[in-house]
Amino acid sequence: MTDLQIRNFSIIAHIDHGKSTLADRLLQATKAVSDREAKEQLLDSMDLERERGITIKASAVTVSHERAGESGPEPFMLNFIDTPGHVDFGYEVSRALKACEGALLVIDASQGVEAQTVVNAYLAIEQDLEIIPVLNKIDLPSARPDEIAMEVEQVLGLPAEDCIPVSAKTGQGIPELLDAICTKLPAPRAPKIKQARGLIFDAVYDDYRGVVIYVRVFDGRLRIGDKMRMMGLGRTYQITELGKYTPKPNKVKELGPGETGYLVAAIKTLGDVRVGDTITIDHDPAPEPLEGYAPPRQMVFCDLYPATTADKKGGDFEEMREAMGKLALNDSSFTYQTVHSEALGFGFRCGFLGLLHMDIVQERLEREFDLEVVQTAPTVPYKVDIRTKGGEVEEIEVHNPADLPDMSSVIDIKEPIARVEVMVPKQYIGDVMKLALDRRGIYKNQTFVSETRDLLTFEIPLAELIFDFYDKLKGITAGYGTMDYEVSEYRKDQLVKVDVLINGEPVEALSLITHRDKAEQRGRTLLVRLRKQIPRHKFEIPLQAAIGGKIIARETIKGFRKDVTAKCYGGDFTRKRKLLEKQRKGKERMKNIGSVSIPQEAFMAVLDTGE
Known about the structure:
Helices cover 26% and strands 34% of the residues.
């Protein structure tokens, strides 16, 4: 019997192409879980993941498999990582790929190659990984494995005959897939140095054991009791537990080259661990660390405030701060800081990787911590060149229109531009072009995918994407259009800050940054919405949208009017006029000293772009 051979691979795909189901089937086929223990989405531990049927966190599992070789059974150790498919969690995917030598690229045999499939395939190619294309869902009546295999060759350049047809649901083709994993994927590279080096590719927080680090060992060995050092942060800890998920936690004495596993070392907070850092042994450290990752960039910002209800008045802020701290422990790509708003009180400015990420964090706050949350409109980061008092030009980053410095000192405002790839059936190309161009998009190129579909590439400002571009795209393509985006650069344009004045007073929470050509339309839409949301008062309330000192749109909320002349009958008109004059003066005084109460719904109305 030969020595144990190791294979490390990731499962990557477009959302809903069956990664998690395939992972479940591989666990069953390798006898890691019995048929009795098997359940749907076995590796998705969060309730949210199960309900939405999506993977949010990547999970790493080790299983053993015996392949029938010529000289007898060959034992293999398979380490695989099930990754998320959604565009917002592309960062999780890139981290998982760094810890592997190969990838299973799963493609739905009825849907074919989608936008995310292309992006994930390129991520794997960039990392120089061996890719095995897997055609999943061949049990569906609408499956077209031969056509899709040609599509894979056309778009990704992977030979059509390399595609392995499987059905993760029925288990058909799984033995052939396991065989391909053992024969086609390369073994881990040989250790380059004798000192220990392990790459941290993820970390989660456990209430009882502190931080649990997922590590891939490249060189040397990590053993229980070793004093380890994180090379980036320079901190040292004693390793108290090592193990692998099989998929239950299974403790081991040591982790050798090429193995992945978890490590516990009584680390108190997730802030003490940096994903992408290298672990080495303190008394015999490695001369240089492994190549890590670029830190994630938050691309969508919004403010979250505790909702004040009749029985609770702002007492939720401390609870919310605690909840945010706990969430940030488990999600290193989410950031938050305290802010204060005149209208909504104390809250948090939060940064997210994308809109789905924002949605999930909000839902976890409401569900896991039982909080009611008010969320402001999402914004994107802008880079602003300003002239300082000394006359120098300085670049600052602004996450909220309210934080823009005085416009007299602003030279340029640059906005993030996203490179957007849209995969659409041919009959919808015209509609998608119109949608992209309406959003200030620039058409770049068009790639032939198959007889029925094309891949279109645009450059679109991120601010135009984050509201409802995806929903609109799904609507006009009958659900068949898929998109992927990444921010490529910051570009200056004619951007202006639109202020909203209610009764002559600017309300910072409602201001927005937009293109000059769209400012009037956005301002007017916003005012019409506010007019419906703000209740009538006893006096007339003007609502205005302004750029600097120039008013560009106005709406008026009429005041309630009591008929003061009702009891005045007979006699001449001057008596009535006196009463009306008195009423008018009263209203003027009320307007000057009266404050307008703005309900929270009015702030929520800003969320809709209302097209």
